[in-house]
Design brief:
Shape: elongated
Largest sheet: 2 strands, antiparallel
Number of domains: 2
Strand order of the largest sheet: 1-4
Order of helices and strands: EEEEHEEHH
Oligomer: single chain
């Protein structure tokens, strides 16, 4: 909601509005309804109003009092489902990291083993100056 004070120097800059309740593909509508206009329509017997953005009819009373009350169990199931999906994703990523790490360790071990296989086994260290 936006605030509009008609008696101050802020007149015309802010307005009380109610957002449209329409949703498509989990995207909410950008439409807004002016509270003063909704009250006038309701007082004159109007029951619904058309959204200017998506052209859908909205019940005026539901716009005023339409906060949806969801069952707490449904909310918990939804949250748990999201968490499970998130943990599954993390587990897959960790499995992939473990696999790549094992490949890098094996590559390093093979490189060290190959160098030592063909290299000298006995050598002598002498000073550069001969002393």
């Amino acid at each position: 909601m936006f605030l509009r004070n008609k008696d101050s120097g802020m007149a015309g800059r802010y307005a009380f509005t109610i957002p449209c309740r329409e949703q498509r593909n989990r995207m909410t509508c950008d439409g807004r309804f002016n509270i003063d206009a909704l009250r006038q329509f309701l007082d004159k017997g109007g029951e619904n109003i058309r959204c200017q953005e998506r052209r859908t009819r909205q019940d005026i009373v539901e716009l005023f009092y339409g906060l949806e009350e969801q069952d707490s169990r449904e909310q918990l199931v939804r949250i748990e489902t999201k968490l499970d999906r998130g943990f599954e994703t993390v587990q897959r990523e960790l499995t992939g990291l473990e696999s790549r790490l094992a490949n890098h360790v094996m590559s390093t071990m093979w490189a060290l083993a190959n160098e030592a296989k063909n290299g000298p086994r006995l050598f002598t260290i002498e000073p550069v100056g001969g002393d």
